[in-house]
Amino acid sequence: MRLLWLDLKSFRNLDGQRVHLDLRYNLLTGKNGQGKTNILEAIGYLGTLKSFRSATRAEMIRHGGTTCRVAGGIQNGEVNATAAFALTPQGRALFLDDRKIVSQEEYLREVAVVSFIPEDVGLVTGSPSTRRKTVDRAVFDTRPTYVREYRQYLRVLRHRNALLRRNSASSTELESWSESFAKAAAALVKRRQDLLSSLNPEMKKMGRILGFAGDLFLRYVGSMDLSGPDAQEMGIVSSILHKLKEANKRERETGHTTVGPHRDNILFVARQDKGGQTGLDLGRYGSQGQKRVAVLAFKLALARVIRQTRGVWPLILLDDVASELDPARRENLGKLVRNMGAQFIITTTSEESGFLSREEGSVFNVDNGSVTQLT
Q: At a CB cut-off of 8 Å and minimum separation 6, what does 354 contact?
């Protein structure tokens, strides 16, 4: 996906702005607090229907306003279209070529955006639920039908938990829902594992390019043994059913399902010697610089996997990515940006970022919500 132009109306401090973008590199410069990250947030929402700031709809609407609207011209291969969203404090409307879209899945099939913001470093040390959500979103980005499997899993999980809290539920009824739960859970676990199988080799490559001393990868830590033959989907079903039987008494007491992908974890791991098998959990032992490079490598690797699975590059947003990188890593990132083939939109406080020159792409200055292209 490439973004040809962006139209912003009453989105935070941005109003009445129409920006025409370069198909490869776009640098947004300006002092802090002027609206650079707001532009990335608007584009990110256009491509994911989520604010990477976890903002509410009301927070994204310009102060004193009642609605905002963001539209963009998108290009996927030879096909051009217009994607748009409108927000009010009460709801959201989605559009493709001025046609109102009811299905979120239908809308998201047409767009693809990967973003990195400084706060993403918290993924490494944050809660397992945050990493699960990030990986589930990545699975959806590479496999849009995953949203149906995910929703089915949540539906079965809620029903099974309701049965556990109902003391009158029979063993036969609970066993039936446990079988449905195990099948739905196994599908999610397998999709996550498939993603990591594709993602980890790319993450290793990206880490090396960015100057990481060792191999970076994600490790899936399940609530059951997933090694050997149990790594296949039917083996996962059997493992989950076995664990559910073991936990039956405890689950009836607590009223909650204690086994399954909603309890699993994903770790950012570095293996710094070729003979090592387990590697180090960066959440516990990594430096701040290592964590930053690990998350950036993950995001860039995800972009490459999306390209492999969907046939189009996602638009890549990088917010203040250079500020914490040393000169060597900054130079390596600049080379990577030039060679990837995706469209990039990058924010920085200075045009002298080492990423690109005006001859290679477009440079914009953002000042108090006003966007001006520099020539």
A: 322, 327, 330, 331, 334
Q: What is the pLDDT of residues 39-86, one digit of tens each?
A: 999 999 999 999 998 779 999 999 999 999 999 999 998 889 999 999
Q: What pLDDT, on the 0 to 100 scale, is given for residue 338?
A: 87
Query: Dihedral sign, CA of 201, 317, 25, 356?
Result: negative
How far is the C-alpha of 368 from the C-alpha of 34, rounded, in Å?
A: 5
What CATH architecture applies to the domain 2-112+312-374? 3-Layer(aba) Sandwich (3.40)
The residue count for the chain: 375
Q: Give backbone dihedrals phi and psi of 196, rounded to 5 degrees, phi first.
A: -65, -35
Assess contact for 89 and 57: CB atoms under 8 A: yes
Domain residue limits, the chain: 2-112+312-374, 128-284
Q: Which of 348, 346, 347, 353 is nearest to 327 (CA)?
A: 353
- The encoded tokens of residue 1 equal 């996906």
CB 60 within 8 A of CB 45: yes
Where b means 16+ CB within 10 Å and e means fewer, 39-75 reads bbbbbbbbbbeeebbeeebeebbbeeeeebbbbbbbe
CATH superfamily of 128-284: RecF/RecN/SMC, N-terminal domain (1.20.1050.90)
Are the C-beta atoms of residues 282 and 291 closer than 8 Å to each other? yes
What confidence tens digit (pLDDT) does each residue in 246-287 have?
999 999 999 999 999 999 999 999 987 665 556 899 999 999
2-112+312-374 and 128-284: same fold?
no
* Model confidence, pTM: 0.92
Reply yes or no on whether the pLDDT at 191 is more than 90.
yes
DSSP character string of 92-140: EEEEETTEEE--HHHHHTT--EEEE-GGGGHHHHS-HHHHHHHHHHHHH
Q: What are phi and psi of 174, to 5 degrees?
A: -65, -40
